[in-house]
Design brief:
The chain is of the alpha/beta class and 251 residues long. It has helices at residues 45-52, 75-81, 98-108, 113-126, 142-154, 172-184, 196-202, 220-224, 227-232, and strands at 6-14, 20-29, 34-38, 60-65, 68-69, 82-85, 160-164, 188-192, 205-210, 213-219. Helix 3 packs across helix 4 (113-126) and helix 4 (113-126) crosses helix 5 (142-154).
Length: 251
Amino acid sequence: MSTPVLEVKGLAYAYPDGHQALFGVDLHVHQGERVALLGPNGAGKTTLVLHLNGIHTAGAGSVSVSGLPVEKANLQEIRRRVGVVFQDPDDQLFMGTVRADVAFGPANLGLKGDELDRRVMDALDKVGMTEFVDRPPHHLSFGQRRRVAVATVLAMEPEILVLDEPSSNLDPASRRELADILRSLDVTVLMVTHDLPYALELCPRSVVLSGGTVVADGSTYDVLTDDVLMKENRLELPFGFDPRTTLPPAR
């Protein structure tokens, strides 16, 4: 089998106050996969994500992206390869125009002129936001800002797109539009979410993290229909939602 785009081996991490957040996590994600990372609050999901682009560094174990270790000497390239879209787009958008926000990352890599413009417009085209290129981000709706936040990451041409609660605070139309965008992207996706129907719709595979360890890794449908697993790990489906009778799961 080919080298995973993302490989986590034996990852353990404790915060400075002594709280142990991860206990030997193993995870592999291959090119083109869309994987949901599920688990209750406090499971270690955010801590794991912060290791993927070097914001945290492993206390024990290792993380690599396409064979490149996540360590200090490689951080610039790792952060190009692993694009993280935060839950709140306002944490990601801080320039005066959409164009300037999307251009910020590639410009820091040295792109300029026509090549920079092409990168910006390509990224905005992928999220359906080209017509807003010269608008101030704070004039956009929340859903539009989230799409621009995704574009700021796509402009870096990452190998892995990591999304933190991508459907949170979206109205139904914006939620569906973002799902259509994510399905259309030619990029590996790791999606951290409590939105279990969204995981079923978008991610064929789910990994359940609980208590700092991986407790399940399989098809999203199998995870969501395992009543014992769901109850033990405080995962609850919305009232009235039953994967057994809903639309076919993601492929």
